[in-house]
Amino acid sequence: MTRKLAVSNIAWAPGDRDAAYALLKRHGISGLEIAPGLLFHGSPDPLLPSNERVAAEFAAMQAHGLTLVSMQSLLFGVEGAALFEGEERQKTLTQALRRAIDFAGRLKIPNLVFGSPRQRVVPADMPADTVKTIAIEAFRALGDAAEAAGTKFGLEFNPVAYGTNFLNRADEALAMVEAVDHPAVTLILDLGAMHMNQEFSQVEDLIARAAAHISHVHVSEPDLAPAPASAEQVVIVLRALDRAGYTGWTSIEMKQTATPLDDLDKVLARLCAAAELAREIAA
Fold first, then answer.
1. Where is the Xylose isomerase-like TIM barrel domain (predicted)?
2. CATH number for region 5-281
3. Whole-angstrom Cα distance, residue 87 to residue 206?
4. Which terminus of the chain is less hemmed in, N or C, by CB atoms within 10 Å?
5. In degrees, to the nearest 5, what angle opens at C-alpha 272 toward C-alphas 270 and 276?
6. In terms of pTM, does the model score above 0.90?
7. How far is CA 20 from each of CA 27, 59, 60, 155, rounded to the nearest angstrom?
């Protein structure tokens, strides 16, 4: 099968764009995941870039054989947004997410990652039934918007250490996706979160159970350190994804380091080696 590999642009500074794109091309990486504030840095509103700016960014991507495959940091810069802190804050959150969804539709980005841990903290006194009702209603409405825009709204499980108490573990996020029961509301498989939750040993079982709901995979490490740290562990994941019939993108998600291009080169080599080994094992 054709392996669809990508990298998030949070791994480099905007000024390193062309050098980073060249590295991706050299390693045969064809997918680009974006944080809009980085791709359209300098724009007064990264979700409303001019047509000329969009054309320039697409030209740079196309020159290196890159396709937009996912978008993250959906609430970057948004103030007063929260899922469970009253109608006004929830309205702010859903309106901001609808803007992100519309933007994904404009750029034909097929997947969005809803992490935003601090905007989804559950108040200590809120009953579990209320939490579930609010979440399902909000996510179904966002699913409708995503479906209309031709994209997917992916729920990402975030560990407690990232500052939230909602959908911390893989099974919790999968259960929510199943409860929402919307074709455009999906699961983001995040390997770094599984490591932090000490549940990576369950990744093959999770993939087998959740494959129909997974729209995107993050190859990440705790605290977004350079990823992957281990090619061997990525082979386990890629083989499980192959067995489950997953056909989506697998994307490196790591924050910028002190030597971003050198570290990007190293992790790209590691990811590609893992993909090649998984292919050889399957042959």
1. 22-260
2. 3.20.20.150
3. 34
4. C
5. 115
6. yes
7. 11, 15, 11, 28
